Structure formats: structure tokens, C-alpha cells
């Protein structure tokens, strides 16, 4: 079908706007990457915008060779894996149970869950609750409080309601119990939605710095994003270097005179952002499909 001149102009304008938006999103990332790959003392002079003027890997050697960051990475990876799987499990089980309309007190439970989406007790009562549960300054403070999401549960519930009831009824007529229905019908048909919710949950766990900053005082338990937040507010590079022994060990593999606090900050941002960005291509197909299904059924 031949398009009119106005349609071509409109299409070109939309394409131009999208290109500008893409560049506005990519430029800060490219700028930080250029600074992280540039000699810190040279980058401090200015003029480094899209590519490094004096290429070096010293900044990444400092970051990746730091034992604190390595341990923070381990905490973040463990938190993301355990938190994502536990969140999906709790969300799926809750949505599946509440999908049975004959479930006792179903409407009351849905109302109580909805209230938690609209109202919050506040930070101080939440902290007191975590303290009474002995979760403060433990790894599980990252997992248990976020294991259930009311929003994700309602999205999953809506998706399950969209599955033809004939499939579930036929399975039940053949003697299938709820666990069999869950594993044989609900989960296989819910893979796109589970992938989308899993991506949301995983990104939340990976990017969260708040819990580590306010609920954890043990430096051995802080995630990498909390360490990055501490680094961004630091006034000198001692936060990264640590002890004198650590400085000497790092000096063997890099030129510390080329490193500045800003260059190390940019390298830390790259190290903390790139892994989660690499996950998107593998889940993009399921993510897009799950979001589209959720929007149509909503």
C-alpha cells in the first residue's frame, strides 16, 4: 500500500524522535565507559566524551582486584538468584491458590493484599518488624521481605484467569490434583509471564542499594550497589584501596598514579551495570511476549 506524503513525513519524524531518545539514553553510558577506560589523571583535564583519549585498564584492575567489591559481587549474585526464584515461587503459589473462586475467604484475602498496595506502615515500623524477626544485619533481610509482591501477584493472577478453564476442568475430571494442575498446565503456559516477572524481580534485587544501606551494618554483607553508593559519596580513593597491603597488591598490576576517584567510580558503575544488561537479550523474547499478553488480558 502506497503511503501519502504526510504519512512518510510523520514516520520520518517518529523515527527521528526515537533516535534522539535512544542517543540520550546511550550517551551517559558511553561517557562513563570512556572515563572508565581512560587514564584518570588525563580524564580529569576534561575533553573525554565518547571514547578514551589515553586507553588503560588500570581502573578496572583496581575495581576487580578489590576484595571488598569481589565479596559484594558475591552477595549481589546470591541475592539476585535466591531472591528471584523465591519471589517467583511465592508469587506463583499465591496467585494459583487465589485463582480458585471456591477458595474460602478468597475475597477477604484479595482485599487485604490490595490494601498493602495502597497503604504502607512506614520505614520505622518496617525496621522494628525486621528487628523483631531477627532479620537485621543478616543475608535474609534481602530475601524474605521482598519474597512477595502484591503487584506481581495480581498480574500473575490475571494471567492465570486468562487460561481456558476447560483445560483445568478436564485435568481435574481425569483426577488431577492442584499440584498436578500447577506443574502440568499452569507453569508450562505461564513461561512468558514468569520470565517477565523474573526479569523485573531480578533487576530489582540487583539494583537495590537501600536494604544494604539501612538494614545491614556488616560490610561483609553489603551488595555491590550499596558499595557503589558509598563510593559515589566518598571524598577520597581510600574507600576502594582499603588497607596498605591491598594497595601494594594492586600496585603490582596497575599504575596507581593513573587512577583517580572519578575514574574508579565510573569503572565501578560499569562493573555493576554490565552483567544485568547482558541478561536482557536472553529474556527479551519471553519478556516482550509476557508484557503483551499481560496488557491484552488486563
Automatic annotation (TrEMBL):
Topological category with respect to the lipid bilayer: Multi-pass membrane protein
Gene Ontology BP, a term: transmembrane transport
Domain ABC transmembrane type-1: 73-283
Any one GO cellular component localisation term in the record: plasma membrane
InterPro entries with a match to the protein in the record: MetI-like (IPR000515), MetI-like_sf (IPR035906)
Chain segments annotated as transmembrane: 12-34, 73-97, 109-128, 140-160, 181-206, 262-283
Keyword terms: Cell membrane, Membrane, Transmembrane, Transmembrane helix, Transport
Main location: membrane
Gene3D superfamilies, A to Z: MetI-like
Compartments in which it is found: Cell membrane
Family (UniProt): Belongs to the binding-protein-dependent transport system permease family.
UniProt cross-references to PANTHER family, sorted A to Z: ABC TRANSPORTER PERMEASE PROTEIN MG189-RELATED-RELATED, POLYGALACTURONAN_RHAMNOGALACTURONAN TRANSPORT SYSTEM PERMEASE PROTEIN YTCP
Protein name stated in the entry: Putative aldouronate transport system permease protein
Amino acid at each position: 500500500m502506497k503511503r501519502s506524503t504526510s504519512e512518510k513525513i510523520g514516520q520520518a519524524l517518529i523515527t527521528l524522535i526515537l533516535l534522539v531518545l535512544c542517543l540520550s539514553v546511550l550517551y551517559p553510558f558511553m561517557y562513563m565507559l570512556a572515563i572508565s577506560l581512560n587514564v584518570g589523571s588525563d580524564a580529569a583535564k576534561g575533553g573525554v566524551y565518547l571514547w578514551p583519549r589515553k586507553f588503560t585498564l588500570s581502573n578496572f584492575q583496581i575495581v576487580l582486584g578489590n576484595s571488598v567489591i569481589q565479596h559484594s559481587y558475591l552477595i549481589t549474585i546470591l541475592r539476585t538468584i535466591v531472591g528471584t526464584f523465591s519471589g517467583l515461587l511465592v508469587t506463583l503459589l499465591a496467585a494459583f491458590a487465589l485463582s480458585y473462586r471456591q477458595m474460602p475467604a478468597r475475597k477477604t484475602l484479595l482485599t487485604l493484599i490490595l490494601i498493602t498496595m495502597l497503604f504502607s506502615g512506614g520505614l520505622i515500623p518496617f525496621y522494628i518488624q525486621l528487628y523483631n524477626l531477627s532479620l537485621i544485619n543478616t543475608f535474609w533481610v534481602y530475601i524474605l521481605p521482598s519474597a512477595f509482591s502484591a503487584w506481581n501477584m495480581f498480574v500473575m493472577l490475571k494471567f492465570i484467569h486468562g487460561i481456558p478453564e476447560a483445560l483445568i476442568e478436564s485435568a481435574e475430571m481425569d483426577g488431577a490434583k492442584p499440584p498436578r494442575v500447577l506443574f502440568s498446565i499452569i507453569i508450562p503456559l505461564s513461561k512468558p509471564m514468569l520470565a517477565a516477572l523474573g526479569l523485573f524481580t531480578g533487576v530489582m534485587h540487583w539494583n537495590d542499594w537501600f536494604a544494604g544501606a539501612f538494614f545491614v551494618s556488616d560490610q561483609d554483607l553489603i551488595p555491590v550497589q550499596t558499595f557503589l553508593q558509598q563510593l559515589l559519596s566518598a571524598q577520597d580513593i581510600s574507600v576502594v584501596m582499603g588497607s596498605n597491603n591491598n594497595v601494594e597488591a594492586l600496585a603490582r598490576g596497575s599504575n596507581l598514579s593513573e587512577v583517580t576517584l572519578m575514574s574508579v567510580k565510573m569503572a565501578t558503575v560499569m562493573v555493576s551495570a554490565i552483567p544485568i544488561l547482558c541478561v536482557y537479550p536472553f529474556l527479551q523474547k519471553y519478556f516482550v511476549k509476557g508484557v503483551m499478553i499481560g496488557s491484552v488480558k488486563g
